[in-house]
Amino acid sequence: MSNNETIEQSSLIKARQVSLAVRAEKRRLFLEDLYNQNRWLVDYLDEEAAAKIALTMLYLGEGTKNPKRGGLVFANSDPYIIKLFLKLLRQCYDINPLQLHCTVQCRIDQDEARLAQFWSGITDIPLKQFYKAQKDPRTAGKPLKNLDYKGVCRIDYLSAIVFQDLLQTIAVLTGR
Fold first, then answer.
1. Gap between the Cα atoms of 78 and 149, Å rounded
2. Calculated CA dihedral for residues 56, 58, 64, 68, nearest 10 degrees
3. 10-61: pLDDT as tens digits
4. Residue 143: predicted pLDDT
5. What are the distances in angstroms from CA 2 to CA 8, 10, 12, 13, 14?
6. What is the pTM of this model?
7. What is the rounded end-to-end Cα distance, in angstroms, of the chain?
8. DSSP state at residue 146
9. Sheet arrangement for strand 152-157
10. For residue 67, is pLDDT > 90?
């Protein structure tokens, strides 16, 4: 390989790196612009109807809808989704905090006490209201690819009235 070929390859590598950086910055600015364009929507969550619709849609996507249950069950691995769900639930209903419970659903190799502490901080639900963690035996011996994975937080709210009200709101909004 000649010296000119080595210089050309080096220049090509640098050009690709610059191109990737420019594209990454353009994407970052594009997403930031979209985020800023939609920020006004959060103000509507203070309105009762919008909050109830948002809660219902969130529950429709991630909640248990078996009409034979005596309470609602909602689960997600994203702390922001869990926070939003609880914010809306507390906003739309007169919640008895003692009826809120959590279950951490995690990999077999994860520290359940540390995860419960994490989710307790996210949910403001005391550790004494956490059920025993559910560990997935299928994960045994398989490497954890996402080191930030905190398992799934399952929220149980033991109120048949709130659960049935949400089910009926889903029925109204979906035209059942």
1. 9
2. 0
3. 888 888 998 999 999 999 999 999 999 999 888 888 899 999 999 999 999 9
4. 86
5. 10, 13, 15, 17, 19
6. 0.84
7. 72
8. -
9. 72-76, 152-157, 100-107, 134-136
10. no
Check if the beta carbon of residue 104 is closer than 8 Å to that of residue 130.
yes
Q: How far is CA 135 from CA 73, 79, 108, 149, in A?
A: 18, 19, 5, 14
Sign of the dihedral through C-alpha 44, 102, 95, 160: positive
Question: Which token pair is 83?
Answer: 């926070």
Between CA 108 and CA 112 the distance in angstroms is 9
Q: What is the CA radius of gyration of the chain?
A: 23
Contact status, residue 123 vs residue 155, Cβ threshold 8 Å: yes
The structure tokens listed for 86 are 């609880």
Please write the tens of the pLDDT for every residue from 103-147.
Answer: 999 999 999 999 999 999 999 999 999 999 999 999 888 888 888
Interatomic CA distance for residues 26 and 18, integer angstroms: 12
Residue 91, classed as helix, strand or coil, is: helix
Phi, psi of 73 (to 5 degrees): -135, 125
pLDDT, tens digit, 9 for 90 and up, residues 156-165: 999 999 999 9
Closest CA to 158 of 103, 97, 116, 82: 97
Question: Length of the chain in residues, anyone?
Answer: 176
